[in-house]
Predict the structure.
Amino acid sequence: MAGLTYTVFDTTDLSTAEVYGRTLKELGNKHQEVVGLSADLAKSTKIGVFAEAHPDRFFNMGIAEQNLFGVAAGMAKAGLIPFVSTFAIFTSMRGLDQVHTDICYQNANVKMIATHAGVSFGQAGSTHHCTEDLSIMRAMANCTVIVPADGMETANAVVAAYEKEGPVYIRINRGFDQKVFQNADYGFEIGKGIQMTDGTDITIIGCGSTVYQAIQAASILDQVDGIKARVINMHTIKPVDKEMILKALHETRRIVTVEDHNIIGGLGSAVSEVISESGKACAFMRLGIPDEFSVIGLHEDLMAHYQIDANGIVDNVRELMGRDFEEDEDWEDEV
């Protein structure tokens, strides 16, 4: 795969969690109603940066995730805007009853920042991997689901979450993620995908850390195979950008989705629902963790193992380009 090389001096820029902590601190400087909560993971999730700056507005609930989300819901009903940080596996599963009933059912204005998502916690093992959260959280009524591609997009997502009324789930990694954006001025908007590269042969739709890998794959495909791949950063899984998906469907007729998540219920499922509801056929492939618990290892090794790194995407795009299917030039007679 395209190796990730960095030094200790790069870590604060590469880690999406580091950027989240700094952004939340600045948000707290401007808005007194912003409060922070964690469950004994302030340092690991980087909400500790907010806690150091605003100790009177930070609450450590101990290792009690159910209390964490229940208290956050109560604070929201009292007019505060709680940002709650713990690992994705604890947000979407251990505290799920409270997330469902206290936050989403009540449409409480709580922002859930779930870190160490996907297989980014590599060596911590399958109990701390979280490859089911997108499937769970996007099924929650009232809940917006965002998967930023890098630190800069995380900053945009945190600010957008503050401005949006209602529950928001932001899924970030443990780090260290490659930079995709050099600054925040590229037009981030909840529910609107970002086209990263032009292409007419095939579309690669990614979210989170796979966006960088998809861009690298598109470059390889162009230089080696002459394949023009369009890359879309689908940072919002719910509401998903149907218009951008259908435009890609019409213009490229081949779509590959790439996610650090089980292929069931996440980005690939969201995109396939849009395609199937359109009544238009295309060559389609979902890349991600298959229906199994992930093996254990370094994040970059796991991405290579499951073919969601640049090389894996290239191999699968070549395979999909070789499939024989009917390219109907006229869909006007279809439903």
Q: What stands out?
A: Residues 173 and 201 are 31 Å apart (CA to CA). The radius of gyration is 20 Å. The chain has a mean pLDDT of 92. The chain has 14 helices and twelve strands.
